[in-house]
Amino acid sequence: MLKGLFNIVVKEVKELVRDPKILLGMIIVPLIMFPLMGFAIQTSMEAVEETMGKLALGIMDQDHQSGVENLTAFLNALDVPTVIIEKPDLATAITYVAQSNLTGLIVVPPGFSQNLTETRKARLTVYTVFRGGGIAESSSSSVISSLLQTFEASLVTQKVSQAIPDDDPSVVLDPIEMSEQSIVGGIGVNVRPDVFFGVMMSQSTGMPIGIMMLLIFSMQLAATSVASEKEEKTLETLLTMPVSRFTILAGKLTGSILVAVVGAIAYIVGFSFYTSSLTGFMPNAGVDLAALGLAPTPLSLILLGVSLFLSLLSALALAISISIFAEDVRGAQALVGPLSIILVFPMIFTMFTNIYTLPLPLMILLLAIPFTHPMLAANAAFSGNYLTTLLGIAYVAGFTVIVLYIAARMFGTEKILTTKLKLRRFRLRRSN
Amino acid sequence: MDPRIAIEVKNLGKVFGDIRALDEFQLQIRTGEIYGLIGPNGAGKTTALRILATLLLPTSGTATVFGLNVVDEAAEVRKHLTYLPEEAGAYKNLSGHEYLEFMTKFTIRNPAERKEVVEAAAKISGLGDRLRDKVKAYSKGMKRRLLVARTLMTRPKLAILDEPTSGLDVLHSVHVRGLIKEYVQRHGVTVLLSSHNMLEVEYLCDRVALINQGRIVAEGSPSELKTRYNAPNLEEAFAKVVSVA
Ligand SMILES: Nc1ncnc2c1ncn2[C@@H]1O[C@H](COP(=O)(O)OP(=O)(O)OP(=O)(O)O)[C@@H](O)[C@H]1O
Ligand SMILES: [Mg+2]
Description:
Oligomer: heterodimer
Radius of gyration of chain B: 18 Å
Bound molecules: adenosine-5'-triphosphate, magnesium ion
Number of helices of chain B: 9
CATH class of the largest domain in chain B: Alpha Beta
Helix content of chain A: over 70%
Shape of chain B: globular
CATH superfamily of the largest domain in chain B: P-loop containing nucleotide triphosphate hydrolases
Largest sheet of chain B: 6 strands, mixed
Structural class of chain B: alpha/beta
Number of helices of chain A: 16
Helix content of chain B: 25-40%
Strand order of the largest sheet of chain B: 6-7-8-3-9-10
Number of domains of chain A: 2
CATH architecture of the largest domain in chain B: 3-Layer(aba) Sandwich
Number of strands of chain A: 6
């Protein structure tokens, strides 16, 4: 029945892949842009670390007591070099530090040490030098203040152990130890909720974005492959070839899916390059969901795959049905574009809410959109709620069959050749 | 069915909205002849050819190709014909060679035979080495030659050619006409064509139908038409018939 399918698929893939616009947008951009972005971020992060390594502080001592010595000793012990600035006034000290390669200046006013010993507020002024070095430099001020906080904490510990010599100062200061855990899918797991949430977020954002990319790509491709037959005037010839219209349709669907998969893989590769250059600097990484028994089971992955494939098919059939009305590629893409809004819609909802908790009409509306279902299936892969996934698959299958049938019907009749004229006349009438 | 009849059209009507493109259209084409449709712009030539090529559905009447109904047995009809649309292109990102290969694969399974056919097409088109270039680098005439070549190369039982030489220079038109004649004589192809070039019609066609406003207003061999309308050439005969009609 599908005789000649392979021939058409090969032709579709060649036509699409050799189209410079498609090649550029789908393969070159993600494979070059994302890694470049990642590289830029990585380089600046490395620059930050380098700055940390080169941290050096000037200290203007107007106190001349033991407190200053303690501070300097503390900093030096942490491998932060210090220079005592011997200048008559603040202005000259600042000028001096600005011209040196010091990271900042700590001004210790008179009475600092005495205030510390007598438990009164002791003040410090910290200047961070900005030399226009971007992100790397902006982080130095926070490094300096965290150094000073550690110093402060050491003073507190000292005070506490003097006041309560028999107790462990760390216990006095932090008497309760909390172990934070989560309950996921009815099971308690030894992972902090914020960590778990972070991992879930990265799973549940990565998934919909990948699905959406794949859908949008393949829809644009399918629209292009139909509309370019019209634009290049190849359709009439193709339709008189001894091959069924359904085979032509199937060839276009398959070709678009194949190219879209390549495009989506390019995006995923490019994007993971990008994220992997960030993860080194992100907390929460490295939680192994599989080890916690929270990884998707093979069954749930298969269901997800089926749901995804069906909704992909329906999206493509939809795109083809719509692009039959277009006269050229540009028109087809303009018609298919709004459909991507329908795609983004369920994605946003499944990302940020549990759609079953939404008001009923909104929930029904979302469930009516077939693209909601692979997103739900992706979530169900973690919750283990297979029944809803199966119902979703049944619904999407029905939807797909109907849309495919419509697309095949349109391809089978003369509408595909004559519709554009009707549209043109319709437009003329409206403008009259 | 009568094997001597290639195309039989009875009372064919086609309406687009409120435009009557074909009206009580009748036609009988014998196997192995070259039959020409001539007529002013908008007369309905392309519409008639498209119905026979199974692209459009008639509003009324019937049309058969080798005894097969073009509506009910469209899939079977397509196995016997090739169609050259009036305005046609080829896939711009394929090379001319790949395009011919692609088209041949629908009808010919045997690779050796396919190779022969594509070589024949290379000769018909006269494109030579340029067949290796992408179609997007072709001129209008080169594209037309590629498409003419693809309609003839498989030696179909019926070739429907809508203005086959439109856009071709004088030399290539002569070349293509010679080939059409050769394919009919040597390979028994039946040809139904439309044309605005009366010289071409006179040279090629065994019989001609003159169409005006969706109806056949005169039919016969070019010489018959000339005598009937007492005209020195087809062009003048055409002018007389259409102005009278
Ligand atoms: N798809 C369509 N929708 C509406 N009207 C159409 C369509 N195709 C053709 N027509 C109308 O049908 C009539 C016949 O058109 P057709 O293309 O068959 O003429 P033709 O004889 O091939 O003309 P030409 O010599 O200009 O190629 C014209 O009035 C045309 O406007
Ligand atoms: Mg025409």
